[in-house]
Predict the 3D structure of the following.
Amino acid sequence: MSLRKLQSLVSRAILLKIAYLFFTYIYLVFLIAGSVLAAPPADFDSKGPFLAEMVDGAGLIEKMVKEADSLKDYSLVFETITFKGKETINERGKLSFKKPKLMRLEEIGDYKKGSLAVLGKDGMVRAHAGGLIKFVTLTMRPDDKQLDAANGDKMEDSDLASLANLLARRIKEGNLSRVTAKPVPCNLGNGTAYVLELFHKSNPTVCLKRVYVDPVSHLPLRWDDYDYKTPCTSKWFDIRTNIGLSDDLFKI
């Protein structure tokens, strides 16, 4: 082998190594984006009950299920903060939904910014990451772990009907619920919300979940999960229902 050819091979290997390191760096930056060191907000507290006097929450859960199941389509903006020890992951995105089960999830915050996942009529998800690799689209099953939110929630279970039915299912499994007898002041929605809590009969002073529910639409405005491996709190904004979303929105 000539010296010139050997030098060319060495140079090429060095360039490949540099490219590998560069894209590894970009990937790691993409992976940890949105992660910061911070303490949970003061009102993220699993201690219950929220008020000294609360009533059974089963009736409100039934209304939540009925309202969510009745929606033909909707769009909303969500924010989820996941607490992993001293680290928090802040996720902000836009969710669009259309019956029977079309979903479009766009990451619009720092965490995985630009990522897009669409659940289509064939039951499969087309998805791409943001940044330099946004032109590479993958096809995967809706339960693929790559589609999980930072808190571990499945994309296919993040629609409003699935969330409401989760509460109903937990009640059937033996959990109990309680809710404020009337809406209480809060900084969500139009300024008031019912506060619903899920708990074990054996330990009623510890909440498993706390949900702030709009008193008119019976849709969730905030949802705190204390029973997750990584506790989290989510908020929903700008909820627009039955707006006539086109099927084309759920295609890539």
About this structure: Residues 13-33 have pLDDT under 50 and may be disordered. The two ends are 49 Å apart (CA to CA). The CA atoms of residues 199 and 207 lie 5 Å apart.
